[in-house]
Amino acid sequence: MYPNAPTSDAVDDFHGTKIADPYRPLENPDAPETRSWIEAENRLTESWLAGAKGRAKVRERLTALWDYERYSPPFREGGHYFFEKNNGLQNQAVLYVLPSLEATPRVLLDPNTLSKDGTVALSGYAVSPDGKHLAYGLAAAGSDWNEWRVLEVKSGKETGDLLKWVKFSGAAWTKDGKGFYYSRYDAPRPGAELAAVNKSQKLFYHRLGVPQAEDLLVYERPDDPELGFGASVSDDGRYLVVGVWKGTDTRNRIYVRDLARKDAPFVKLFDDFDARYEVVDNVGTLFYVSTDKNAPRGRVVTVDVEAFEKSLAEGPNAKPTLMDVIPQGADTISAVRLLADRLVVIFMKDAAEEARIFSRDGRREREIALPALGMLHGFAGKRADRETFYAFTSFTHPTTIFRYDFSTGTSTVFQKPKVDFDPAAYETSRVFYSGKDGTKIPMFLVHRKGMKKDGENPTYLYGYGGFNVPLGPSFSPARVAWLEQGGLYAQPSIRGGSEYGQEWHKGGMLAKKQNVFDDFIAAAEWLVASRWTSAGRLGIVGGSNGGLLVGAVLNQRPDLFGAAVPAVGVMDMLRFHKFTIGWAWVSDYGSPDDPEAFRWIYSYSPLHNIRKGMKYPAVLAVTADHDDRVVPAHSFKYTAALQAAQAGDAPILIRIETKAGHGAGKPTAKSIEEAADIQAFLGRALGTPEGGRP
User: Fold this and answer.
1) In whole angstroms, what is the distance from residue 156 CA to residue 409 CA?
2) Which helix (H) or strand (E) holds 302?
3) Close Cβ partners of 499 (under 8 Å, ≥ 6 residues apart)
4) pLDDT tens digits along 502-544
5) Which is catalytic among the residues 183, 493, 544, 587?
6) Annotated catalytic, 627?
């Protein structure tokens, strides 16, 4: 039934344990044997999905649901407002500029004109403080590699500046608008762009009009090639602030340079790599910092950088003095901004966000009223601004943009989308269930009003559980389509995320990673026990680290699920660190090169815990041939191994997208096609009115 995958006799020795890797040839995505296998697998998947009776209808409905105007929160820089807008079915959002909120917006940059198929995306941008120039990054075919360019805001003309081999970096303009800081890697060898390991990032300064080869090297650490650097320039233009990171570890370092002093050294403000530090803003030499130092749920402190620099002259072991402004509380701090001479703090409370406003000395003034349980982003601006814009989203509330007026303390709707569905027909509830070890875990349930708890509801259980990433309420056209078919959507906030601070994160990482899988399994068991659904009607979905989650729990409890969709998952846990940025995930997973970590990694690695002769439920792995974050070899090898092991009748399929990457910047057309295929798969496997059973 299944295509023959290329194999080899590769065997690796891990601390005395020899482990075969028969599908090693699939790590080369361009080999003729691999390409033939990809084509055969896609034909097989297409033929099975064609049997989902409502596939075309679902795609049509998804297209209608996706066809609504989507905006980003505006921000103001150099006397202009900037925002992004997608008219609905445009493959990429368009960047607009306008001199005032009453003016007619002008297109500044339209990525849709840069490729016929919409696979070139705007990956980042920064406006110079004088508002004259826009530095922007482009990503092709979903790759993490970016090319940065510059255009004039007034004319829209390109300046000719071109920066290559940029990855995991923005642009930080100097106050004079003559150039910006950015980070890049050395060029990989030809042919290895999508697989070579990325290390030894360097921080540069680019002056407008100067070739990249002449950019000034600002900082590097050849003694520690795993360090990366993110630069920002303080709003007053005085300080260069460099965040020093290592992989995906939430802990970081902060170095500061006084740009007003010629050849000033970097002051290593926080250099112990002992906590998370984020500079919010500064008032003269006094820096406001958000940190989880001695506060796993976060706090806001001040530190005087000038006083600390003087103390260093007295002794190199001096430590900065931190003064609490907002001490740690019951809820977790998600973000902090200094606007209108006030601190705007976003808190996460039981997996939903709230916005509270404090004076600069930490006195709580008010809370911003929100329409429902949801998530927030935006709040861009400067300390002197008297307005800001933010976006609110929830499961049944499409992302709405609000303008907040600090003088009146009120929010007004700035842009509210019109989506072709009735939110009043659905309800959202937040429940709490117990994990295997008794831990209390929140979970959101979304469904049509009046849904019966008869054990027959097709259920879409989604999870992530890692890297300090929280899961909160958000709007998705694809999710609405599932709800309209009579489905239940369930989203637990399992350990590994940041919903309850660093303790919640640490409870699902390294040797405690099994907690993540146990929490997800417990969510599924609760849904079944509560009669919301049954095993044969329960589908599980997750992407990236969430794909690992799906693969792991599928191996551990194949009896509990009716279908599984592991998307762009980390499935080969013994070789993840050997490709692109995979080494950076060691902070959450541990390294298989370490004997102790190997034991726990090997115990759950999705590829290595597949059992020959087991009856697995229906599986649709999803990946992309240009994914240079989680290389497609993970899904290729996993699928081949699972197909060879399957003893049941349920299909083991893989959907391999072309000219796409890990997900960022994916064209709207490709997003709709993928969502339609996933829902057609779940519908046929679990049974929905539009899917039918095989």
Assistant:
1) 36
2) strand 299-304
3) 332, 348, 350, 351, 442, 470, 471, 472, 493
4) 999 999 999 999 999 999 999 999 999 999 999 999 999 999 9
5) 544
6) yes
